[in-house]
Amino acid sequence: MVAGHQAGRHPARVGLIGLGLMGAALAERLLGAGFALLGYDVQRGKADALNIEEADSVAEIGRRCDRVVIAVFDDAQVEEVVAELILAERDLSVLCVTTCTPGRIASLATHIRLVEAPISGTSAQVRSGEGVGFIAGETKAIDRMSDLLNAICPRRIVVGKPGDAAKAKLAVNLVLQLNRAALAEGLAFAERMGLPASMSLQVMRKSAAYSAVMDSKGEKMVRGDYAPQSRLAQTLKDAWLILEEAERQHLVLPLMRTNVALLSAAIAIAGAEADPAAIIEALRAP
To answer: pLDDT per residue over 224-239, tens digit each?
Structure first.
């Protein structure tokens, strides 16, 4: 039973905007917790694939749902969605899981009741309840979303006011992306020296070099399995957000700049829709 609801009762319909990899994982979590969903995505038909009711527009979500989860690609899309929801002129509560620029998401929170909740983890990790949410917003707004948060990310940390969750997520993403790039470079180096990648991964897992990314991406790198749990395009978008925020803070991030170059090369080789594990292909290339 989801906290805040009596056994045998279903919570009110929740709007879900954005039905990509992350949105689909969120839909599964929410459906499993007993929520009725009204979904919208610019690519029609995704709601049918998830077995949820499909809305014709963001405006319909705003008219029919008191609470809305946003899981779109970037700042610009979040701003567009929030602008349309505001036009509904209803007392809406919004939960945004998109990784945004700190200043832009903080600004949006001055116009609508918004809880910031970017999640650290792949869609597979979110689907299994292993994603970690970074939560920011007014206490009352967070409380109003507590049952949704229990369903979406049972593991979460409240970090402060709107914008703070984006800052935390960007810092975490910096370390995560560099760990992934380091693993790819180490495996490519071992392969070039003639060591089997599968054996090298096992050695690394048992060594002082271990990081959790070896569990989530190591086998995909070894097998060349780039079926997306997240996408290179999204990873590169977040990397640019990190660099842009670092520039605002007058900080140089040389390792992240190298990572951006590798991600761009990997997209040229494997395509923007490939899993970020494909970064290894930029290092395997002659």
So the answer is: 999 999 999 999 999 9
We report the CATH number of the domain holding residue 87 as 3.40.50.720
CA angle 254, 259, 262 (to 5 degrees): 135
Q: What does the DSSP assignment read for 107-132? A: HHTTTSEEEE--EES-HHHHHTT--E
Give me the helices (H) in the chain, please. 21-32, 46-49, 58-64, 75-86, 102-108, 123-127, 139-144, 146-152, 164-192, 197-205, 213-223, 232-248, 254-270, 279-284
Tens of pLDDT along 41-74?
Answer: 999 999 999 999 999 999 999 999 999 999 999 9
**Collapsing DSSP states into helix, strand and coil, what is residue 40?**
strand
How far is 12 from 176, CA to CA, in rounded Å?
36
179 shares its domain with 153 = no
pTM of the predicted model, to two decimals? 0.92
Tokens of 33: 């917790």
Please give the residue range of the domain that contains residue 148: 14-162
Measured distance CA(108)–CA(38) in Å, rounded: 23
What residues contact 231, with CB distance under 8 A and at least 6 apart? Answer: 21, 272, 273, 274, 275, 276
Residues 6+ apart with CB under 8 A from 111: 82, 86
